[in-house]
Amino acid sequence: MTRQNQIPTADGSRVTLALIPLWDMCNHTNGLITTGYNLEDDRCECVALKDYKEGEQIYIFYGTRSNAEFVIHNGFFFEDNAHDRVKIKLGVSKSERLYAMKAEVLARAGIPASSIFALHCSEPPISAQLLAFLRVFCMTEEELRDYLVGDHAINKIFTLGNTEFPVSWENEIKLWTFLETRAALLLKTYKTTSEEDRSMLEKPDLSLHSRIAIKLRLAEKEILERAVSCGQAKRLHFQKQLDEGAPLPLYEESDIALLENADAKLPIILRKLEEEDERVQEEMNLAQIKPDAACLDSSKTPVLNGQCKDLNGTQEDPPGSNAAVKESEVEKSDPSTKRTEDEPKDVGK
Q1: What Enzyme Commission number(s) does the record list for this chain (predicted)?
Q2: Please, are residues 60 and 49 in contact by the beta-carbon 8 Å criterion?
Q3: Which of 281, 278, 312 has the alpha carbon at shortest distance from 295?
Q4: Is the full-model pTM beyond 0.85?
Q5: In degrees to the nearest 10, what's the CA dihedral of 149, 155, 161, 165?
Q6: Which of 1-5, 192-196, 227-231 has the lowest mean pLDDT?
Q7: Among 133-142, 149-158, 242-251, which stretch is predicted with the lowest mean pLDDT?
Q8: 3-state DSSP of the chain
Q9: Which has the least CB within 10 A, 57, 185, 264, 276?
Q10: CB neighbours of 89 closer than 8 A, spacing ≥ 6?
């Protein structure tokens, strides 16, 4: 699977599998995807991530993959993975009295009422999209009406993923309490503790496969533990704001410029957001893969590991909304259906 690279056919109408000697031997490191496919010259082109010295190993960036994806599809655990994450299923129950209102607010923000999200290893552990979902998930009927028919209701949708504009102090307290509780429940599903995993890793006779599996398990727990800690800290912070009667930052129509500012802490155009690791494609049928026409129209446009994410990357499914999900769970990938690009020469690194 690590040598099955997807490239466009000669006429650019579809993708096919190919070997790319040398390039597909490169190991992974942090950076950016710098590989594309030049249709005009019919070749894979890769720009170096940095200046290399003679005899120095060349690396490429495999993409924003979690360690679960690296372990399953590439055979290694990447210690310094800035894109590691744990998937959870969240959804508004269709039996809930306010389901229709919550689903409508979420729909206006481009978010399904049930979907797979992710807790990240970074700070904060949630994306703007997940923040928006949790805010709506915890809204009261009065708050929901304010985002549906209140003054500037349409524009207020854009504030849902922005940390600067809480719905209410009570709403913030509820959503971070919910996140703290849910992450804690996920931690309890593991049969070992983080301390026990660290002790296991100290054993000198541990097999390579066991070591990698334990490292992955421990990394997932550490992400969940950080989510619990963050949730608790945020909950206490907003409880203090509420107790002290702090004024709530109010959205004004003039703030739309701030929301569209590229320097904002979190992106807020939610419909454009991609939870890069949140909805990984579980069933990829290679016979049906058709790259975005916009990627193939221009012979100069790189499509390998570039804008067409179904080419040598980890493609993500669009969010589904068939059934309400009532419980969170760590999602497992199906290794038989994934196509990835590289396998390191030293799988033990």
Answers
A1: 2.1.1.85
A2: yes
A3: 312
A4: no
A5: -90
A6: 1-5
A7: 149-158
A8: CCCCEEEECCCCCCEEEECCCCHHHCEECCCCCCEEEECCCCEEEECCCCCCCCCCCCEECCCCCCHHHHHHHHCCCCCCCCCCEEEEEEECCCCCCCHHHHHHHHHHCCCCCEEEEEEECCCCCCCHHHHHHHHHHCCCHHHHHHHHCCCCHHHHHHHCCCCCCCCCHHHHHHHHHHHHHHHHHHHCCCCCCHHHHHHHHCCCCCCHHHHHHHHHHHHHHHHHHHHHHHHHHHHHHHHHHHHCCCCCCCCCHHHHHHHCCCCCCCCCCHHHCCCCCCCECCCCCHHHCCCCHHHHHCCCCCCCCCCCCCCCCCCECCCCCCCCCCCCCCCCCCHHHCCCCCCCCCCCC
A9: 57
A10: 114, 115, 116, 117, 325, 327, 328, 329, 331
Q: How many residues does the chain have?
A: 349
pLDDT over 70 at 266, yes or no: no
Give the largest CA-CA distance in the chain: 67
What residues form DSSP beta bridges with 116? Answer: 89
Flag whether pLDDT at 30 surpasses 80. yes
